[in-house]
Amino acid sequence: MIATDPAPALVIEPMRPDDLDAVDEIERHSFKTPWAASVFAEELTREWARVDVARDDGRVVAFADYWLVKDEIHILAIATHPDRRRRGVGRALLDHVIALGRGGDYTLVTLEVRASNRPAIALYEAAGFARVGVRPRYYAEDDEDALVMTLTLR
Questions:
Q1: Considering the domain boundaries, does residue 5 fall inside one?
Q2: Which DSSP helix (H) or strand (E) runs through 147?
Q3: Which residues pair with 144 in a beta bridge?
Q4: Domain contains 147
Q5: Spatial CB neighbours of 26, under 8 Å, sequence gap ≥ 6
Q6: Alpha-carbon dihedral angle through residues 49, 72, 101, 81, given to the nearest 10 degrees
Q7: Total structural domains in the chain?
Q8: Catalytic residue positions?
Q9: Measuring CA to CA, which residue among 64, 143, 58, 67 is closest to residue 106?
Q10: pLDDT tens-digit profile of 44-96?
Q11: 2 inside domain
Q12: Residue 109 maps to which CATH number?
């Protein structure tokens, strides 16, 4: 039997305007209250904002939206298309963002995550993030709490 790597050979690169439909589709499948495609289009115009996509054979299968704020990286969202989940794609994007931070002058990575999102929390904890606080009723559509998590880079 030949062993195969469950994670594809991904290409991670900055989102382009023609990726908006694919990112929007992933967003709609991933979040209770998805952001409009126009939000991602606006991110492309902001100096501090980055949206990177993971491509497999040219197809956008995941994205990471994050901000570079002074010496901190703030992750707004990491999402993977449902047909590619649990294959290491989200972890590859998270590792990419962390590596960017370690390679630059960044000292901290922060994020908020739904308290009920156990797969995401497990992903972040496996990468070394720690729970540092709670934002009560952070998510307006259902009043769910958000966990605040951080990863110290230096």
A1: no
A2: strand 144-152
A3: 139
A4: yes
A5: 60, 61, 62, 63, 79, 80, 81
A6: -50
A7: 1
A8: 112, 124
A9: 67
A10: 999 999 999 999 999 999 999 999 999 999 999 999 999 999 899 999 999 99
A11: no
A12: 3.40.630.30
